[in-house]
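Prompt: For my understanding, could you write out one protein's sequence and backbone structure tokens?
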Amino acid sequence: MKKKILALMMAAIMAVGLAGCGNDTGTSSETSGETSVVDSTSNTNSGEENEGSNYYPVTVEVYNTSQELVPYTFEKCPEKTLVYGRNNVEIMLALGLGDKIMMIADCGSVLPEYQEEFEKIPQLKDHQDVGYFVREYAMSLEPDMVIGWRSLFEMDDRMGDVEFWHERNIGTYTSINSVLKDNQSLENEYADIRNIGKIYNKVDEAEAIISAIEADVAKGKEAAAGNDPQRILIAEKWEGEYDIYHSKTAAGDIATQLGAEVLGEKGWTDEQIVESNPEVIFAVHVSSVSDEEAIALYTENPALASVDAVKNGRVYPVVYSLAYTPGVRTGETVKFFLQTLYGIE
């Protein structure tokens, strides 16, 4: 009888889930195309059985500076993360991971809904003069995770390649569209959200963010159906030259998936813009340039006076953070295109 009671007690103890780093999850990372980041973990538990110690280890493939996918296994949830770039900071905060951030760099502001939590996080500029993490200083902080753009890892005078950190049991994640600059996509933005959620056991939260964006993308597809696609140009002007956000950029792919025809290639000139005659121009600009100044670069350029977008008052300013590696701001980018292209609020 005592043996029976003991067996029942042991079974009950084993059924109890331990508290973990994030929420329950039974899904795996899913991205499409050659640019996907694949989660190769064998973790297949779900529901109550997939909490805490039952969730890890998790293996995620991340990009190195040679644009190669390399696997890294997270034995537990990272607790001391260095985060570079607004997109990555906002993804972390959107997933409720502010307490996992040790320090941030190259992020002066965030969306209003994350401001309160953002103000609690130490910023590199308060400790170092440079605007990016340097290997020696970063090592002195003893992080267990580093998240950033390719530019952070590709230079030896910054952080060096991801292998340096992996060899020291420090995880990394590199924003995909910062690596695949000539093959960016909306799906890659989803993958960043999805994979960071995977690493920190916040899969449900990540999928909720992605699902909301997908619902708005569907509105654009529906609005565009049966109509000729609007011919648009997304560009940033630099002293006479245009940085074109073509169809293989994040902003360009988002607009394409919403039913627009995205014009332009690298190195376009005024003459090529006139020849292509876009119906809509989106003037990308950094924070030091106002919306009005960005618009004026096109509307006050005599060479573009004959362009339909200029004649019809359809030149719209777009802040840089919505066009390049937008992260959770991808939802704002989609909404912006819905409003300007289709009048959908």
Summary: The radius of gyration is 23 Å.
